């Protein structure tokens, strides 16, 4: 009975960390479930990035499939009885999306990309919380989108310490220049232009 209680407690802990992350509350990023989900996403990113090597002879259709696979939520690292709550949003990739490799993200399932979006090479998205890139946006090369930061008032414990996330939204018709960094909790309003090398520290 004690063993069973410990096992249930462990599963509840794993579930809580993902739920806390998705809700934008402090969570432990090196929780086992989250680590395994990042590994799954990392492998999917690697497959897509590797497919863009012309010498591999991968078709455009297969590249598109591999890119969309990064954002899939159906592949769970735990069984359905161990899984966390259903996501409050659903990852989606629109039509006519053009992405240059390498592309990197943490989970994939927290990202939505609208129609007619272009994403330049070297894009990094740390998607512990929702990231929404709306229709007709142009994301320049080497753009970084961060949804995580250390929570205020917590002791800094490195890999054992908590993180906290906040949603990032890029509204339709935005132009994000090369080398831009977008910090957690920011919203870039419709039709905005963010100059190359900028750090977005406030809502535009």
Please supply descriptive tags for the structure shown above.
five-stranded parallel sheet; 3 helices; 17 strands; disordered N terminus
Q: Got a strand count?
A: 17
Low-confidence stretches: 1-14, 74-86
Order of helices and strands: HHHEEEEEEEEEEEEEEEEE
Strand content is 15-25%
Q: What is the tally of helical segments?
A: 3
- Percent of residues in helices comes to 25-40%
Would you give an account of this structure?
The chain has helices at 2-22, 32-51, 60-69; strands at residues 92-93, 98-99, 103-105, 111-113, 118-119, 123-126, 131-133, 138-139, 144-146, 148-149, 164-165, 168-170, 175-176, 181-182, 187-188, 193-194, 199-200. It has 204 residues and is an alpha/beta fold. The strands form four sheets. The protein has a five-stranded parallel sheet with strand order 1-4-7-12-15, with no helix packed on it. It is globular. Mean pLDDT is 86; it is low at 1-14 and 74-86.
Short description, anyone?
With 204 residues, the protein is an alpha/beta fold. The protein contains 3 helices and 17 strands. Residues 1-14 and 74-86 have low confidence and may be disordered.
Q: Helices and strands in order, then pairings?
A:
Elements: H1 2-22, H2 32-51, H3 60-69, E1 92-93, E2 98-99, E3 103-105, E4 111-113, E5 118-119, E6 123-126, E7 131-133, E8 138-139, E9 144-146, E10 148-149, E11 164-165, E12 168-170, E13 175-176, E14 181-182, E15 187-188, E16 193-194, E17 199-200
């Amino acid at each position: 009975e004690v063993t069973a209680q410990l096992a249930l407690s462990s599963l509840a802990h794993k579930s809580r960390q993902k739920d806390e992350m998705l809700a934008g509350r402090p969570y432990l990023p090196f929780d086992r479930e989250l680590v395994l989900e990042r590994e799954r996403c990392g492998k999917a990113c690697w497959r897509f990035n590797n497919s863009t090597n012309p010498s591999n002879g991968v078709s455009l259709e297969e590249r598109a499939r591999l890119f969309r696979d990064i954002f899939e939520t159906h592949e769970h690292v735990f069984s359905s009885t161990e899984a966390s709550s259903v996501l409050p949003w659903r990852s989606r990739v629109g039509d006519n999306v053009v992405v240059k490799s390498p592309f990197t993200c943490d989970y994939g399932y927290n990202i939505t990309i609208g129609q007619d979006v272009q994403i330049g090479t070297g894009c990094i998205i740390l998607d512990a919380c929702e990231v929404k890139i709306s229709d007709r946006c142009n994301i320049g090369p080497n753009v970084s989108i961060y949804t995580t930061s250390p929570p205020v008032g917590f002791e800094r414990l490195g890999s054992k310490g908590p993180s906290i996330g906040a949603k990032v939204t890029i509204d339709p018709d935005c132009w994000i220049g090369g080398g831009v960094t977008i910090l957690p909790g920011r919203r870039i309003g419709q039709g905005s232009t963010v100059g190359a090398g900028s750090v977005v520290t406030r809502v535009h």
